[in-house]
Amino acid sequence: MKRAITPGTFDPITHGHLDVITRASQLMDEVIVAVAASPGKNPLFSLEERADLARRATAHLPNVSVEPFEGLLVDFARSRDARVLIKGLRAITDFEYEFQMAALNYELGKDIETVFIMSPPQYMYLSSSIVRELASLNSPVDQFVAPFVAKALQEKYAGLRSGC
Ligand code: COA
Questions:
Q1: Residues 118-127: pLDDT tens digits?
Q2: 23 CB less than 6 Å from ligand 1?
Q3: Is the CB of 54 inside a 6 Å radius of any atom of ligand 1?
Q4: Domain of 57?
Q5: What would the pLDDT profile of 3-52 be if each residue is shown by its tens digit?
Q6: Any idea which residues carry the catalytic annotation?
Q7: Phi-psi category of 163—alpha, beta or left, where left has phi over 0 and alpha has psi -120 to 50?
Q8: What share of the chain is helix, strand, coil (3-state, %, to 5)?
Q9: Is 0.90 surpassed by the pTM of this model?
Q10: Total domains in the fold of the chain
Q11: CATH code at 33?
């Protein structure tokens, strides 16, 4: 059984993330989308909200599950008996950062391998922060995220604007 982890903050999950998860699910028997707490990033959505949106976005993929996690990624991977981390590479600018993280994760867990999947051209420029910025400015984000993610963004920013 080949089980992989696709980790991220997913604040929120985009079509770019879904592309990587879908392709990972075609390569592996089982994929766990690991939604990191990432407190240092001060996420817009809570951990449970991010995991819930990721669950809904991947509901059509039978061998994909979603789990929130805190702490070290390699520890989470080991706890799930997964030996492969799959990450998306969008542009050359991702490389240095991803290289550093892959090297650190290798140091922390030599039994765990990082594998990269190249993003297709249409998602090379996409990121959650770009989607958040557009949504915060009331610009449509439907071409970048699932309809329920767009709605959740709209509601979140409406709530923030009204001070809720
Ligand atoms: N398509 C679209 N966007 C993508 C993408 C893709 N394929 N891959 C990454 N992104 C974007 C994200 O949307 C995010 O955008 P933003 O920062 O503009 O909002 C950005 O790339 C970074 O992604 P993120 O999900 O935050 O991942 P990361 O590469 O920074 O790593 C973890 C997050 C969870 C994997 C990492 O922080 C981690 O492992 N944390 C656990 C603690 C730990 O083990 N630390 C040591 C590890 S080195």
A1: 999 999 999 9
A2: no
A3: no
A4: 3-124
A5: 999 999 999 999 999 999 999 999 999 999 999 999 999 999 999 999 99
A6: 17, 41, 90, 128
A7: left
A8: 50, 20, 35
A9: yes
A10: 1
A11: 3.40.50.620
